User: Fold this.
Amino acid sequence: MTVRAKICGLSTPETVRAAADGGASHIGLNFFPKSPRYVELEPAAILARPARARGVKIVAVTVDPDDMFLDRLMATLQPDLIQLHGKETPARAHQVAERTGVGVVKALSVSEASDIAAAAAFEPIVDHLMFDAKPPKDSELPGGTGARFDWTIMAGRRFQRPWLLAGGLDPWNVAEAIKLSGAPLVDVSSGVERGPGLKDPVLISAFLDAVRRA
Assistant:
């Protein structure tokens, strides 16, 4: 099985280049203002160009986006996928897909096996499912906190849609995470940073190398 990788929360040309050079299948640009990885729409569109030219899928990471923002997002960035990382319902995910005409990734917070059941309601609607570690109770961020969950609870599961494993991954544990979970696609953000929001091209390359060898 060839495992693909998404590098999320990129904000500089150097890190976008490292992701594309290293073979990332997707990059994520974060539009949640409270995140240290937040980028404005116009700079994000410029950042995305070289990766898009090399066939890398562009993912717009959002948290409960309203229709006005979605319209601006499509006019400015034209992402391949919109990631919903908030409290969006299946009905809202359907509205987002209909309004934008692009694929939707729905992130689901997981701390135990029973949390995975929430995926069933989204499977007929979205293009991808993401299983991310439930953030600490005092966190203002829905993801990107470095938290992780028990990867073994994903083992052997089958879904109607491709799915991503996220939460606490880094260059040193991603091979184990792939082995234990069977994930076809992995997502990293804080695990390739030298500080909050500060992506490190060397760590990005190391993460992608580890995925390739897994």
